[in-house]
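Hi R.,

Here's the chain you asked about this morning:
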Amino acid sequence: MISKKGILSLLTLFFSLQVKAQNPPNIVLFLVDDMGWQDTSEPFWTQLTELNKRYRTPNMERLAKRGMKFTNAYATPVCTPTRVSLMTGMNVTRHKVTNWTNYEKDKRSDYPDSTIMQKEWNWNGLSAVPGIPHTVYATPLPAILQHAGYYTIHCGKAHYASNDTPGADPLQTGYDVNIAGHAAGHPASYLPEKQYGAANKSHGVPGLEEFYGTDVFLTEALTRKALAALDKARKPFFLYMAQYAVHVPLEADKRFYQYYIDKGLEPAEAKYASLIEGMDKSLGDIMNYLDEKHLTENTVILFMSDNGGLSLAPPRTKPAHTQNLPLKAGKGSVHEGGIREPMIVSWPAVIKAGSVTATPVIIEDFFPTLLEIAHASKARIVQKTDGKSFLPVLKDANVKQAERVLVWHYPHRWIPQEGPGLHYYSALRKGEWKLIYDQRNEKLSLYNLKEDIGEMHDVAAQEPVMVKVLAKELTAYMKERKVEMPVHTLSGKPVSWPDAL
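And here is the predicted structure, written out as tokens:
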């Protein structure tokens, strides 16, 4: 028989759990720039790769032990489309910020191509204000969380929109605090002796004058500023920690650079690796802060990258497009090297430690997931969304979810150099099948990712029925979202829909 004291203890525990269940958790969204799926010592495949053995990311390992690892997580091929999908819950085919936004307003970023061009897209990015030309009008995630009672902090890279538009300023998208975020897509420099590129009007990192003349690398400076902001935060808080690392310029983080030189890496690769390890230290510093403040139990940490690892050579070591093997290609490509990302979610109060899920997720899924976590799912928003909450997966890694399609659309030429899957491509994944549409040549390719993660064997000729089924699904998905296909320059005719081939 339970004593009165025992009953009282059980009631106290019950009510404390009820209170915890009702209180929305703190949220830390840690987004890395240009980090590849294997740019970490924590493996996201069924085996440890050679790249996993190259890097030191002990805090990613630590986070994975605490939480859940996603082995089939995806972003878009380049940065701004990912960030807009993250902030709005919309697939790129719906928001139509299909390429990165230029710092200058109304200046398109897509590189000219002699054979094909995309006429219209939202080249000025995201806006929480209606009526701004060439922007997608949407209710951003931080604005919803702010309205729900969260103290919202932006730290690092924003790159939601072009300068002189409302979306360029994080304070106009729902953040209470903005640290170093503006319209630029990368820093002019990571180095304090160069004042983080302050002399560069468009890409100098703003607001870090206190670190000029010190030895504090940009990644570390941002982390210190973020932790200082958390000290002033009301609870609950939302920290969007968007490191500029590991985007170019490749500059050595001296705290870690020599280790990789001594390991035999070429200087460019050693610089890249030092940026990775510095980013990992930032993650660890935030985790340490939460531990010290006894906030870890009911704080959600979501770790993600905005696109695949850079595979251009230079600045990476030659040969190009081999830096993410066995994944094909890299940043800018719809192949796995350009879109598959390392993703970890920790929430000790809810997630089973050390769990792993193979459930496919895509960047727009973060929006409904975070709204559900924050008890803000019923918030009024102006946009129609495409993301699907993965909160059920966080609660149970083995939960069965209905098979769905994931879609990418990149109707642009990103850079002068050619490469696999880089320019004018769309793609769809359903289950283990992945269909890729080469818009320029109007050609469909098919890969089985379970058997061929490197996308080396196009089986379209052997699986014509599957090609037809997936092409029909891709076409329907794009038409429903009113996609305008690129136009062939010589004929003036739009690129055919995938199911018309």
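One quick note: The longest strand covers residues 26-32.

Cheers,
M.
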